[in-house]
Amino acid sequence: MDSKEVSILDLQRVARTWPLMLATALLFIHNTVMGLSFYYASVTLPYHQNGTHGYIQMTESEDTTYVSLHQLAMVLGSFIQHPLGEKFGRKKVLILSNILTILSFTLMYYSSSFFVLLFGRCISGLSFGLGVLLPLVLISEIATIKYRPGMANSVNLAINFGGLLVYVVNMIVPPEYIALAVIVPSILFIISSPMLLESPHWLIRCGKMDEAERIFRALRGPEYRGVEREIKEVFAIVDRKNEATKRESRWRSRTFLIPMGILGVLFSTIGLCGLDAPLTLYGPRMFSEFNFFLPYQYVSLIIPIGGFVGYCVASPLLGCMKKKVQYVMFAILMAVSSGLLGIAYFIKDIPEYNILSQVLLGLGALGLCFGYGGGLGAVVYCLPGELLSPEDKTLGLALAENFRLVWTAAVVKIYPVFLYLVGQAVMFGFHSLVLILSAVFVLRYLPETKDKSLTELQNLFKKTPPGVPV
To answer: What span, in angstroms and rounded, lies between the C-alpha atoms of 297 and 356?
Structure first.
């Protein structure tokens, strides 16, 4: 049968997989650095609060400034990664991100004042914004259709692995040396980066067709007969997009605006569901308030373990379950878990319910993190690489991530006010409501993307001709 009569999905069945596994492993190292960097504040804020182990003591105002400015620096980083990624390629920006990570944590390690510490943390946020999205973009541009969701989930799993790792480091390494644990894997990624291949999609858009073909053949192997088909598909989509751009701006195009509307709502859900703030950023402090018989450093391991196990579960589910079903199922689990956290805080100060409140806190934290890793986060971070066209991915993903980051920064800054006005129990009720509403939104508006090629995914958002059923 002529290869033109066979779908790309069928052609890719004979493509080799080890180059994709190598790329996933290298990006796993990079995103482990991102996880270590992001969760670093979670384990060190209690030391800053008390001024112990050589950490600079912070007031409550300095605490919220330290956290919220880090989020805003991440916003800046995610914005500039788009032009940098389009100008210099994905690989060079990933290397730059790790160089900035090394610089930032070196500054924080040697800081002797709050302003130097804050400056270092802001550089850390900038490097996180630069580096956290491009692995997803790169994977969507090198992976086969079959392996695309699993590879995307694996690099997201790495962020939670980095979070788990920094919690473990906090237990076994003197606290004053935690910053050094972030620097080591950054150096490892830079050393191993020559083995990481550049995006062939980016090369095609730059007009480097021969180099793009060489990389496609290196990725797919000598038995693969679909290289020309993949190149032509990318080129055709980019060419059609360029022709459409002459008639209408990207900001009026259905193939950009509809996916961005969906992604904006879903990424906002992550920022407002209680996962980032308060659980991830202030989790250890929350556990310390409940007076567990074990040190809070041990009990709060529930947070990264829940997310890590969730992402492990998500990989096989992404291969066999519709994304809409997976999202809704785990969003409901997260809503219930947030409710348990609210109940835990409601009964926390009643002596006879002391143990029950501790159990509910543990179950709620575990369920919220597991639900995020198992479905909500796993699905949401797969979607930009599938819903957006090749030239829109870096910008679209940056905009989507900024919905999450801006909401998180706002929540961090105003959370103390709402805690004073309504209390933690009511706030977790609000987080549950956000999750339920997002599940309803997904059921109504999210199209199914499973096993679809680039062309099929783009056709999801084009106007349907009259009389043609959707």
So the answer is: 20
- Can you tell me whether residue 293 is helix, strand or coil? coil
Cis ω on the peptide bond leading into residue 185 (within 30° of 0)?
Answer: no
| Residue 469, pLDDT score | 39
Query: What CA–CA distance (Å, rounded) separates 263 from 436?
Result: 17
Q: Quick count: other Cβ atoms within 10 Å of Cβ 470?
A: 5
**Given 3-state DSSP classes, what are the helix, strand and coil percentages for the chain, each rounded to the nearest 5?**
80, 0, 20
pLDDT digits (tens, 9 = 90+) for 387-413: 888 778 888 888 998 999 999 988 888
Burial 298-308 (b: 16+ CB within 10 A, else e): ebbbbbbbbbb
Do 189 and 25 touch, CB atoms closer than 8 A?
Answer: no
- 3-state SS class at 446: coil
Residue among 206, 214, 197, 259 nearest 235 (CA): 206
Residue 355 corresponds to which tokens in the numbers above?
């143990």
Neighbours of 62 (CB within 10 A): 16
Q: Which residues of the chain have pLDDT under 50?
A: 1-2, 243, 246-247, 465-470
Write phi, then psi, for 440 (nearest 5 degrees). -65, -40
What long-range pairs does 201-207 form, CB within 8 A, spacing at least 24? 201/141, 201/234, 201/390, 202/85, 202/86, 202/89, 202/90, 202/141, 204/231, 204/234, 204/235, 204/238, 204/390, 205/86, 205/238, 205/390, 205/391
Phi, psi values for residue 469, rounded to 5°: -70, 145
Using the 8-state DSSP alphabet, how is residue 341 labeled? H
* DSSP-assigned letter for residue 117: H
Q: What is the pTM of this model?
A: 0.81
Nearest-angstrom CA–CA distance, 460 and 435:
25
- Please state, in angstroms and rounded to a whole number, the distance separating the CA atoms of residues 275 and 270: 7
Neighbours of 59 (CB within 10 A): 11
Please state the separation of Cα 426 from the chain's center in Å: 27
Tracing tokens 């579960």 back to the chain, one arrives at: 313
CA dist 433 and 194 (Å) reads: 46
* CA angle, 266 then 270 then 271, to 5°: 115
C-alpha 380/C-alpha 133 separation (Å) is 12
- What angle (nearest 5°) sits at the alpha carbon of residue 112, between those of residues 111 and 116? 50
**125-168 residue pLDDT tens:** 999 999 998 999 999 899 998 888 888 888 888 998 999 999 99
Per-residue tokens: 361: 């806190």
- The residue count of the chain comes to 470
The answer to whether the beta carbons of residues 56 and 110 sit under 8 Å apart is no
Question: Which pLDDT belongs to residue 4?
Answer: 54
